[in-house]
Amino acid sequence: MSISEFLADLTNPDLAFLPKALLIAVMSSVVCGVVGCYVVLRGMAFIGDAVAHAVFPGLAVAFVLQGSLVVGGAVAGVVTAVLVAVFSQNRRIKEDSVIGVFYVASFALGVVIISQAPGYAGSLQQFLFGSITGVPDEDLYTAAVTGLLLLAAVLLLHQQFVTVSLDRELARAVGLRVFWLDIALYVLVTVAIVISVRTIGNILVLALLVTPAATARLLTDRLGVMMLLAPAIGGSGAVVGLYLSWSYDLPVGGSIVLVLAGVFLAAWTFAPRHGLLARRWRRGGLEENPAPAGAV
Amino acid sequence: MSVLEVRGVTVGLGGRTVLRDIDLTLDLGDLTGLIGPNGAGKTTLLRSILGLVRVASGRVLVDGRPVRPRRSTVGYVPQRHEFAWDFPISVENAVMTGRTGRIGLLRRPGVEDWRAVAAALERVGMTDLARRPVGELSGGQRQRVLVARALALQPRVLLLDEPFTGLDLPTQELLTGLFQELAGEDKAVLMTTHDLLGALDTCTRIALLNRTIVADAPPSELLDPEPWMRAFGVGESSPLLKILKVM
């Protein structure tokens, strides 16, 4: 399918779900791209994965009760995130183990709940792998408003998040409430995942959080640039992925994630300073001009 | 004039008494070396001065008032490995994080904050590298960034935790010079160190710690081996004590 045909389909009133899907996919990618920068820099990818699982029982309850998926997922994700933060205070058990216990239990609860609903297999698949059809208008508004609030929160808390991420010990010494900032970050990650989970799917949403931010990290050493680049990469990936999905009748979540992974591989290879080729080239150059002995 | 007073501080962690009845007073102009074996409670003492561990009994006073992390001007330089050096941030922005507590929630750094950061970088001789990503710095430069980050609060008390670990001798010498100058600029500097010889040579005071303060005096008055044997739990023939004969 050519791009002009894709544009025609986007404006075709009979295919009204398509522009809605595009909008929500782009919004999700932008929000996840920004929040994902903290996730990547703090090595929290496992937490991101866990949150994605944890929102599941909320989605299932909302689905069974015909309520708002966004609200249901947010409540479940936040409750689990807070439980993990509280239980991690016991230093005998490491945080990743606590996460392993709570988030998978949460996911299991979701599976049990949704098995009670009629049409169990179909809805389960939709949750796990995403779907572009049937996004209600109110979900679109909720996602837009939540996304904007989330970006505002990031802007306001950025200095604090950076301080804690750089050095927790100093952050405590200068009087930051590290525990509450951790909770705030978990909540932001949860919200970003919840507004994305419908289109992309529960399993694949992690890629939206991690891949664009990791790609951006390869391309820059400046945090500000990284936090603009990641949502740009994510947003473009969503557009291209949806286009491919629509043209070749592929699952939308899978298409977007594969496009993003392709961009990541390209950056990993060709990035100007940290890419494979640049490092090879630099190493070659260094052998010709060895560093003076004792250089610090 | 004393700017920091630790009076009868006892700290328990996980049911064990880690520090017992600590008395320590820091005067402006002092460069004090805090020396003791591993597990003596050196870092815990620094953390209790900062108000980061609960003190079971006793008091810590800065300028005569109880410590409070957000208010008191105690500059802290944690060990270098606490810092995420792979984080994509410039030197000046890293130094700015020292002021985050003062900037407060929901606000961004203002003119005064940037001025303090510039002055701190100037003080440690890192102005030229202000925009360099922290990951590209050498060990000595990294230590300077951490000192600048503490200085960004314009503290009168500076606490340094093992500032020399993993640094070569010329770098240690440069940093020692910096710490001596800072002490001379109306500050009280307290540093933990494993470099006994260096501490005896450059510090104005030595505090020997092993769960409690074993001795606290100028180096010239600490040439008797007895307190060292008690602090480190070693016998008379320990090679450690030969350092004292050199002094």
From TrEMBL, chain A:
Keywords from the named record: Membrane, Transmembrane, Transmembrane helix, Transport
One Pfam family per UniProt: ABC-3
Keyword Membrane: yes
SUPFAM superfamilies: ABC transporter involved in vitamin B12 uptake, BtuC
Topology relative to the membrane: Multi-pass membrane protein
Transmembrane as UniProt keyword: yes
Main localisation: membrane
GO annotation terms (biological process): response to zinc ion; transmembrane transport
Localization per Swiss-Prot or TrEMBL: Cell membrane; Membrane
Cellular component terms (Gene Ontology): ATP-binding cassette (ABC) transporter complex
Superkingdom: Bacteria
Segments passing through the bilayer: 21-41, 61-86, 98-120, 140-157, 178-197, 203-220, 227-246, 252-271
PANTHER family: ABC-TRANSPORTER METAL-BINDING PROTEIN (PTHR30477), IRON TRANSPORT SYSTEM MEMBRANE PROTEIN HI_0360-RELATED (PTHR30477:SF13)
Family recorded in the similarity comment: Belongs to the ABC-3 integral membrane protein family.
Name this polypeptide is given: Anchored repeat-type ABC transporter permease subunit
The organism of origin for this protein: Jiangella rhizosphaerae
From TrEMBL, chain B:
Pfam families: ABC_tran
Chain ranges of the ABC transporter domain: 4-236
GO molecular function: ATP binding; ATP hydrolysis activity
InterPro entries assigned to the protein according to its UniProt record, in alphabetical order: AAA+_ATPase, ABC_transporter-like_ATP-bd, ABC_transporter-like_CS, ABC_trspt_anch-rpt_ATP-bd, Metal_Ion_Import_ABC, P-loop_NTPase
Protein origin, superkingdom: Bacteria
SMART domains given in the database record: AAA
Keywords of the record: ATP-binding, Nucleotide-binding, Transport
The keyword Coiled coil belongs to this UniProt entry's keyword annotation: no
PANTHER family in the record: IRON TRANSPORT SYSTEM ATP-BINDING PROTEIN HI_0361-RELATED, METAL TRANSPORT SYSTEM ATP-BINDING PROTEIN TM_0124-RELATED
Record-stated family: Belongs to the ABC transporter superfamily.
Record NCBIfam families: anch_rpt_ABC
Name of the protein: Anchored repeat-type ABC transporter ATP-binding subunit
Phylogenetic classification of the source organism: Bacteria, Bacillati, Actinomycetota, Actinomycetes, Jiangellales
